[in-house]
Amino acid sequence: MSSETPTAGPLRMPATVAVTGAMGFVASRLLPRLHERGVRVLALVRPGRDTSALPPSSLLEFREGDLAEPSTLASAFAGAEAVVHLAGLSLVPDFLPAVLAAGVRSGVFVSSAGVHTKLRSGSAEAKRAGEQALRESPLAYTILRPSMIYGTPRDRNMVRLLEWIERFPVMPSPLGGITPQQPVHVDDLVSAILASLERPQAARGEYEVGGPEPITLHDVIHTCARELGRPVWVLPLPLAPAHGAAVLARRMKLPFPVRPEQVLRLTESKAVDIAPARRDLGFSPRPFVDGIRAEVAMMREGRRG
Description:
By secondary structure, this protein is an alpha/beta fold. The protein has helices spanning 25-36, 92-101, 122-135, 158-167, 186-198, 217-228, 239-251, 260-265, 275-281, 288-301; strands spanning 16-19, 40-45, 60-64, 82-85, 106-110, 140-146, 149-150, 170-174, 180-181, 184-185, 205-209, 215-216, 233-237.
């Protein structure tokens, strides 16, 4: 939800944008689209990180710095009009002073819909603290909270489910997969980031971003199976055995489609309200079936995305 009443205005993309998490999954889809718009990117990477995977570009400059070590960030954000933070909201209190000291005026910060969990979660608490640090700052920030991000074999979410269904015809699922999910395609998240950068009404706004509508985990599993051309049987499990199986698989280093903490989260609704993002950002996400069909095609072709 937007924290203030938005004010419409002319679109303007910043000329220079600093991007954290520049070697990650979302950045791999964001950077080409920034380059298409002629935006100069200052890619912040940890010292010693191999950057050869990114193609050289006159619009790309690498800056070394550790977001958790403010002393390494003296000039990391110099010259940037805006920042796109993809490296975790828990780090915001550490590096936000360097952003402000560099005169950066605005930023887009990718959080997670997981901040709404009612389960005990140190990760969620750290993200909430990062969001609160932004609210208390003078920065014209935009917070985006994506649901489960998917879209290419690099996504670390749906690819695990797809690989499981490829290998096994049975999918154990807490409570039979009745809880709503709302996966968001990575390219739709990137579109929301770009809109947040260029639309003045996004300033001081907070938005949930997910798919066009909630679908049950049961339907997610069967949609994936249909696109793979594989049969699958969803095996309903009570929560405690499902969590125990995930814990045991992790300890024994056996394949399992989700981590133990994710099993617990699978019992919580992940439905989100994307109406404010539709209104302010022009957010128009693709149906899950279309996105997962494209991801399956990439897997079949051996493309990482």
